[in-house]
Amino acid sequence: MAAQVEQMKPLPDLDDPVSAPFWREAAQGRLSFQRCSVCGYLRWPAASLCPECWSPRAEWAPVSHDGEVWSFGVYERAFSAAFESDVPYVVALVQLDAGPRLIGKIVDVVPADVTVGMRVTAAFESFADDAALVNFRGLRSD
Ligand SMILES: [Zn+2]
């Protein structure tokens, strides 16, 4: 059993009431963030209080799925057995058009084709019945 646990990929905590809605919205094909009900700030990561005005009030708001690669790295070696079948793969910091920066894999791409400034859009990867990870794939520029 222990070996099985070691080979599992780390996944978000769906028992966390503050952040779980992010992953559950993704399962519905929506990229959503907490929007402060007082000042409108998009909170990322999700938090109990707004870092701008300290209000606890917020609602989950869907935003555009699009953004651009701000920085990235190519994993040529698996640092966990759970990722051995994935290498090589690209992990990027994506500057969303909506404001927040998200870290996610760039999928369906040859790693050498990824560039800073590349336009991408969210690509959801289910990891539970009602939760998904947010990855990205390239957007055609034409
Ligand atoms: Zn606020």
Chemical compounds bound to the protein:
zinc ion
Main beta-sheet strand count, sense and barrel state: 5 strands, antiparallel
**Can you list the strand order of the major beta sheet?**
6-5-4-7-8
**Number of helices in the DSSP assignment:** 2
Classify the beta-strand content into a percent band: 35-45%
Q: Radius of gyration over alpha carbons?
A: 16 Å
Structural class: mainly beta
Measured as a percent range, the helix fraction is: under 10%
> What is the residue-averaged pLDDT?
92
| Elements, N to C (H/E) | HHEEEEEEEE
Count up the domains: 1
Runs in which pLDDT lies below 50 for 5 or more consecutive residues are: 1-6
What best-fitting shape do the alpha-carbon axes yield? globular
Report the span from N to C terminus: 50 Å
Which descriptors would you attach to this protein?
single chain, 142 residues, mainly beta, five-stranded antiparallel beta sheet, disordered N terminus, binds zinc ion
Describe the structure.
The chain is mainly beta and 142 residues long. 10% of the residues lie in helices and 38% in strands. It is built from two helices and eight strands. The N and C termini lie far apart (50 Å). Zinc ion binds next to loops. Residues 36, 38-39, 41, 50, 52-53, 55 line the site of zinc ion.
Summarize the structure.
The protein has 142 residues and is mainly β.
Give a topology summary.
Elements: H1 2-7, H2 20-27, E1 32-36, E2 42-43, E3 58-62, E4 66-75, E5 89-96, E6 101-106, E7 119-128, E8 131-138
Antiparallel strand pairs: 1-2, 1-3, 4-5, 4-7, 5-6, 7-8
The chain binds zinc ion (ZN).
